[in-house]
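Illustration 12: NAD(P)/FAD-dependent oxidoreductase.
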Amino acid sequence: MRAPLRRALVVGGGIAGPTVAMFLRRLGVEVAVLEARSEADRDAGAFLGLAPNGLQVLAELGLGAEIRARSAACAGLRFFNARGRCIGQIDHREHAQRFGAQMVMIRRAELHRTLMAAAAERGADCRSGAKVVALAERPGEVVARLESGEALAADVLLGCDGVRSRVRALALPASPTPAFTGLCDVGGFARCPDAPLEPGWTAMTFGRRAFFGAFAAPGGEVWWFHNNGARETMQVADPEQRRASILALHAGDPPWIADVVRATPTLLGPWALHDIMTLPRWHAGRVCLLGDAAHATSPSAGQGASLALEDALVLARCLRDTAEPQTAFARFEQERRARVEAVVRQARKNGDGKAPAGPVAAWFRDRMLPLFLRLGAAAQARFYEHRVEWSPPAG
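Figure caption equivalent — predicted structure in token form:
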């Protein structure tokens, strides 16, 4: 059944936004994707993982091969203590056979550009520098007013504008604010050929005062992130002072970490990591939230992007199969809420484990981590094996 929609506004040009736009274009809906940032600003960001459950959504859109060409397969994760000893690992090398795809790592800006370009190629009106400042509803439509003064009307408006969603603040002003997870994030890309990292593997190090993750990308580049709970990092304006702060936090940790940080031309961030454990509702009238705007998760579960991709398919499918937008939004929320909130809880739990530990706690962690990783891998498998289908009717 073809969706009764004629026009849709999608706010946010990250992951969920252009993806839901492509599915709506498949239904013949006229779609405008409104991204507040300018084209130049959209190059910011580090990297992320796309899990098998997210990759299957991209495959449904015919983008699987292009994404694989722009990303790198992740063979697995290895965990190290502050002395550099490997204390456990999660192996992804059989995931293609088990789940139909293997996790890949991709630069965030590269993913955003690819999705927006694909949406534009399929007929979506994709705009940068289009900041929504006000929303209003009138009979049969919703109106978004842009900072430029332009007013755009559509049958529905979909908020895909992230954890600090402007759409959420306008349409659901009573929603709780995102919660600080206790971690701040800095990252970067470096060429550090002497770093003892195996290509395709992510090395996770529980440092004495901070957590450090590094992915050995093909071609010798190291993609890395640093987590710690010191908000002071957010307040250091000078990048070189921030670099010095990171180096000080990793003093006494494996020396290759400092080598990677020093070899990084430009530090990315800092970002304070927030999540949204739950919202009372995801929709109001002709407006619906999806992705991080509805259920932001910290990066610690590696599922944020993949959940956004799942949301995009499911919401478009609900709009396809349901005559009234409000009923479609309710079905979407009912289908998605339990799954996404379980992932948010798991991510919060994973993030708590990155906090610096004293000598006794570190001794206990090093010995218990293999058990924790087996439990974590089981939870991960449940996330990875989940499939959302375009063909069956919603409901």
